[in-house]
Design brief:
Helices cover 54% and strands 21% of the residues. It is α+β, with helices and mostly antiparallel strands and 182 residues long. Strands 2-8-7-6-9 form a 5-stranded mixed β-sheet. A hairpin with a 3-residue loop joins strand 6 and strand 7. The radius of gyration is 23 Å and the shape is elongated.
Amino acid sequence: MLIETTISNDLMAKGLLLYYTKVDKTEKNKLKNVLFAGIVLLLVFFIILFFAYKDENKSALYGMFFMLMPIFFLGFILIYTYTYTSFPKSQIKKNLSLRTVYKGYSIFTNSGIMSEIATGSFDYYVWGDIGSIFETNDFYFLTVKKTNMFVIYKPNLTEQEIEHIRNVINDNSIIEMKTLDC
């Protein structure tokens, strides 16, 4: 069944904001660990420098400073990574600019999903390529190989199309579809 899954950029942004704030919890936990590691590295850097300064041996202080610079930069990079990737709006802009979100017509079959891309040709994914499937009140989110995503806005679909998508996913998907109340 050919299903039109075209939605506006505003609805796409709304759906991605919902996904990144409610659904994507494991990534947020990983980012919290990155932030913690960055803070620990910066604290180690400043504590060691403090004790080297307290010794009043200036040559040891300069040597220690240059030896600890990789720790400082690594801590800074980890904190920057957290702040850059943890905010949903930056993720939304990144996904919309990279066009990793499929918009257009899609065909859901027993063997996989075929979707129209910007050039007018179709990409095809078997069900084994689908990484996660979430259903909310207004959206379906299907991640493909951790780099692409199908965002399907349910109010644009008929009841028959919604049932077809749900049945095809439940019958053929390797991954279980998770339903969220949001």
